[in-house]
Each structure stands twice: as C-alpha cells, then as structure tokens.
Write a structure and sequence with these properties.
single chain; 171 residues; mainly alpha; two-stranded antiparallel ribbon; two-stranded antiparallel sheet; 9 helices; 4 strands; 9% strand
C-alpha cells in the first residue's frame, strides 16, 4: 500500500516499521531541496513583511520637522534662513532637541543636525541646551516638547525634582 500526499510517496509497509523520527528523517532526506527552497521563501517573506512593518511605523525626520513647523506656524524655508526672530530660532532649537534625543530614529551628529539648517555644531549644541533650560522655566515649551515626543511614540515625564525631561525606556 502506498501513501501519496503532495508529491510524497512512501511505502506504508516500510513506514510502519519506522518510528516517527525515522519517518521524518526519510522525508527530509528525500525532499531536502524542496524544503530548503520553501524555508528560503518563507524567510524572505517574513523579512520583507517585517521590513515593511518597521518602515511604515517609523516617523521620519522630515515628518517631525513638518509637524513642528505646522504646530508653530513657521515655514520650513525660514528655518534655513538667517533670521533671528525668536519664533523661528526656538522652532529650530526644538527640532534639534527632539532629534538629539532620538524622538524619531536617526543617527545624526550635532554637526549634521546643524548643517540641516545651515548652522554649525556649536550653534546646535547651544540650541539643545537652551531648550533644556527653557523647559525648566517655560511650561509652554516643556508641554510642547512633551506633546510632540509623545505624538512620535517617545513617552516622556517631567521630573520635578531634577527639573529634566525623562524619556520612558523603550520596550
């Protein structure tokens, strides 16, 4: 008697004399190439599915900049200009602060953050520290930074004792 299932033919009489592990080994030996191809296809599918899931869930640097500019009613073009108006400067500094604290995934250095807006690393560092200091005294700035951080998936807490913004550890 023969057992046929998806192009697999095994002599039932021979199979009855084998234990489950031996049957499994026989199937694997006979169909090794097809199983390897199937494993490769499943792996490729899972990798692509994971990649797409991650890419769709991650916000980009541009999305963060666009959101901050929109909420503060500042044009993105004005961030690159030489203007020293408080609203524009603060907007730029808030963006630097958020990017330095990895509110959206990035691997940018202070130099690169500065170059985004035509500034150097020292100006960027000053801007980040300025926002850290402003958050101590200016509740509006603090709440704005916390809301943006939370919106982009980085939960925050204000530590009233240390007077610093703490980011909750990621799972």
């Amino acid at each position: 008697m023969l057992l046929t299932n998806s192009c697999l033919t095994i002599n039932l009489f021979y199979m009855q004399r084998m234990n489950t592990e031996e049957v499994y080994k026989e199937i694997v030996k006979d169909k090794a190439e097809e199983l390897d191809a199937l494993k490769g296809a499943v792996l490729a599918y899972e990798v692509e599915r994971f990649r797409n899931e991650v890419l769709t869930s991650l916000a980009t640097i541009d999305e963060l900049i666009t959101h901050v500019c929109k909420t503060r009613m500042i044009s993105k073009d004005s961030l690159v200009g030489r203007t020293r108006k408080r609203g524009v400067v603060e907007t730029r500094q808030i963006i630097w602060y958020l990017l330095k604290n990895k509110v959206v995934r990035n691997s940018l250095t202070l130099q690169q953050l500065g170059e985004m807006f035509g500034r150097d690393h020292a100006t960027t560092l000053w801007g980040v520290r300025k926002i850290e200091m402003l958050m101590i005294y200016d509740r509006n700035i603090r709440e704005e930074v916390m809301i943006i951080s939370n919106k982009f998936g980085k939960p925050t807490r204000w530590d009233t004792t240390a007077k610093v913004l703490s980011y909750d550890p990621e799972d």
